[in-house]
């Protein structure tokens, strides 16, 4: 008999969605507890689960999980920059930006951190990344860099040399990659976001 969980793939699902797969079983909560005990599903937080990839055959996506775990949100900062291959360091926490209060979640699949941003800045520089059968929302490289600077308390890029040192030594981004970024997104971020002077210095470096 085919396992009904297979059809869920790697999309995070609610408890009620799981229960609907087993309509013949009374006491859906008990069924969910059994599925979790048998490691067929993984609990992300209360009422939200993802299926074990050994059952579905679908690799789990931390980016997709991050979008669902605390919405609305998008993956950003070091997590996005690493995804794009713009910084070399492995990132062990999935960093996202949200319209809700800042919050962290520790799950069996790792730590997920969410940082608040204003509604006006939230919509600047977002992209949808489509995989075979799922899509997640992530910051563009430019937005991810702006978010990272805006939410790093000790970062203050007053001079071109500060910006150059930050990119090359602190986050180890190639200047060549940086100079290929879209200046328009930085300009839009400056209208509503934080650390305007630091972003302005970045723009000067880009256009130098």
What is the ordering of alpha helices and beta strands? Answer: EHHEEHHEHEEEHEEHHHHH
Q: What is the number of helices?
A: 11
State the strand order across the main sheet: 4-5-7-6
Termini, distance in Å? 65 Å
Structural class: alpha+beta
Spans of at least 5 consecutive residues whose pLDDT stays below 50 are none
Question: What does this protein structure show overall?
Answer:
The protein is built from 11 helices and 9 strands. With 208 residues, the protein is α+β, with helices and mostly antiparallel strands. The protein folds into 2 domains: 4-56; 62-207, no CATH class. Strands 4-5-7-6 form a 4-stranded mixed sheet. It has a 3-stranded antiparallel sheet with strand order 1-3-2. The longest helix is centred in the C-terminal third of the chain and has 12 residues, at 196-207.
State the main characteristics.
single chain, about 210 residues, four-stranded mixed sheet, three-stranded antiparallel sheet, 11 helices, about 40% helix, elongated
Task: Compile the SSE list and pairings.
Layout lengths: L12 E2 H6 L7 H10 L3 E5 L2 E4 L1 H4 L5 H8 L3 E3 L1 H7 L9 E6 L4 E5 L2 E7 L2 H4 L3 E5 L4 E5 L1 H10 L9 H11 L4 H4 L4 H10 L3 H12 L1
Parallel strand pairs: 5-7
Antiparallel strand pairs: 1-3, 2-3, 4-5, 6-7, 8-9
Helix pairs in contact: 5-7, 10-11
